[in-house]
Amino acid sequence: MSKRKARIPRAADAPPVTASSVHAKIDTVRAILDAVHEHVPSDRLAVARSTSSRALARLDLSLSHTTVALAGTTGSGKSSMFNAFTSLDRSPVSALRPTTAEAYACVWGDKDGGELLLDWLGVQPRRRFVRESALDGNDEVGLRGMVLLDLPDVDSIQPSHRAEVDRLLDLVDVVVWVTDPQKYADLVVHDGYLRRLAATRGGFIVALNQTDRLLPTSLPQVAGDLRRLLDDGDLGEVPLVATSATDEVPGPPGAAVARPKATFRTKPGPGPRTGPLAASGVGIAGPSGIRQLRELLEPAVVGRRAVLERLDTDLSYALDELGDMFAGQAPAVSPSVLVEGLIAAQGVKEKITSSVDRYATLSSAGLPEPWPEAIAEAARRRLSELPLALERAGERALAFDRSSGWKRAMGAVLPAVGKKSQEGRDRRLRSEYGRVAEDFVVGPVRSVVSGYSAARAALS
Ligand SMILES: Nc1nc2c(ncn2[C@@H]2O[C@H](COP(=O)(O)OP(=O)(O)OP(=O)(O)O)[C@@H](O)[C@H]2O)c(=O)[nH]1
Ligand SMILES: [Mg+2]
Questions:
Q1: Which atom number of ligand 1 is nearest to the Cα of residue 289?
Q2: Containing domain of residue 408, as a range?
Q3: Dihedral of alpha carbons 382, 384, 387, 389, sign
Q4: Which regions form coiled coils (predicted)?
Q5: Is there a single domain that holds both residue 306 and residue 424?
Q6: How many Å apart are CA 250 and CA 273, to the nearest integer?
């Protein structure tokens, strides 16, 4: 996998993300892809292509539902948390590892829009449940619209689990990474998996689960250590919340939340911070372990922000990555540079090749990868045909000369006439060579440079 850039935090005063602003970003990505796909290796465009397709597909589905995936290592308590959230005990929990082999899902509120989303995600109908009945009263109002997914483990001895998790993580709106005090510093964090996963996403939360197993005095140390690991892995913006799927989090409510920051944008306002920046658990029903996570999720679900912000963040990331390919204005190089080189080459193949290469080098001066290569390739595409084409061009220029033999005869006796006819010959040769240069080298190079410039214009 290519090295991922760190996520660019969203400015607090940035304009709100809307469906049309997301559509506009998709259009930009598509315009860039259209302009350059013939010239750039497809792997360089893969992220942009998949991001824009996924965003389009997601926009077509319910925007009043937010998909939230519980992901992480085996035994961290994903299924236990899923059951605690849903109060349904539908996802089997076990001491055997790994337990969950396929995703489970629960929809809060309107089932229909949620069903289409679950079809898109590929969750089996028999593993889908619905929460929020009349019995709940208003307790579940804050989560209305949430589609919670319990995923298989990511560190599985079963390779199929990892593939399924990766597929789903690519599609969901919010990821809650569930870890526990024994495993929080494990390889999945260290080898950069988490960093790569979180780097491109808007909605990402880390839950330190099973904190009920810790002494109240140990919790701040463990949470602080995990916070440091996250910060060191460029995940300083990711909120961290202490949870327990089965019991209470030790210590006063909210005390175990180590420097959570906003993943979901909150409008800056006067007074104490609310929403995702405050995880006190106040005012939300249930055991404190789940309350704290709920308090992070509710504003994202109720405000319908997570879906669009995730897409917006993804697309910004894709555009940012594309942007690296378009630093610098393409130089305007006169074709005469090439024509003069070809005339000077006098039909010698090596010299013809170096004039073409020189023209390509000048045309790509200052452009980032992969453009110098793309331009060089375009310039050389018809190189093997060029010597013969130039020879014919020379013959055409001379043929005109032969047809006006009287001028040559005059030139032999009158120097002024001779000079003029030499100039005419040179002009005709240049013009014939110019045509060949245009067809064989300049045109193909121009097509690449136009793609580059069109993409650059779309980006700006
Ligand atoms: N004390 C305590 N035990 C927990 C907690 N969460 C889960 N457990 C226990 O940890 C074990 C594993 O829980 P699961 O919910 O199956 O874990 P999982 O992450 O779904 O595991 P996989 O499906 O294998 O990926 C079970 O024995 C749970 O009872 C918690 O918060 N506190
Ligand atoms: Mg499980």
A1: 31
A2: 335-459
A3: negative
A4: none
A5: no
A6: 23
Which ligand is nearest to the Cα of residue 245, counting in written order? 1
Question: To which residue do tokens 């930009």 refer?
Answer: 28
Tell me the C-alpha distance between 185 and 98, whole Å. Answer: 19
Is the CB of 51 within 6 Å of ligand 1?
A: no
Residue 74 CA: which ligand 1 atom is closest?
Answer: 25
Q: Are residues 414 and 435 in the same domain?
A: yes
Q: What is the pLDDT of residues 410-456, one digit of tens each?
A: 656 666 666 666 777 889 999 999 999 999 999 999 999 999 999 99
Amino acid at site 378:
A
- Mark whether 258 and 138 lie in a shared domain: yes
Last residue of a domain, one of 284, 300, 324: 324
pTM: 0.79
Domain membership of residue 182 (yes or no) is yes
CB of 244 sitting under 6 A from ligand 1: yes
Report d(CA 355, CA 377) in Å as an integer: 14
pLDDT tens-digit series, residues 318-376? 999 999 999 999 999 999 999 999 999 999 999 999 999 999 999 999 999 999 999 99
Tokens of 147: 């589609």
**Structural domains in the chain (count):** 2
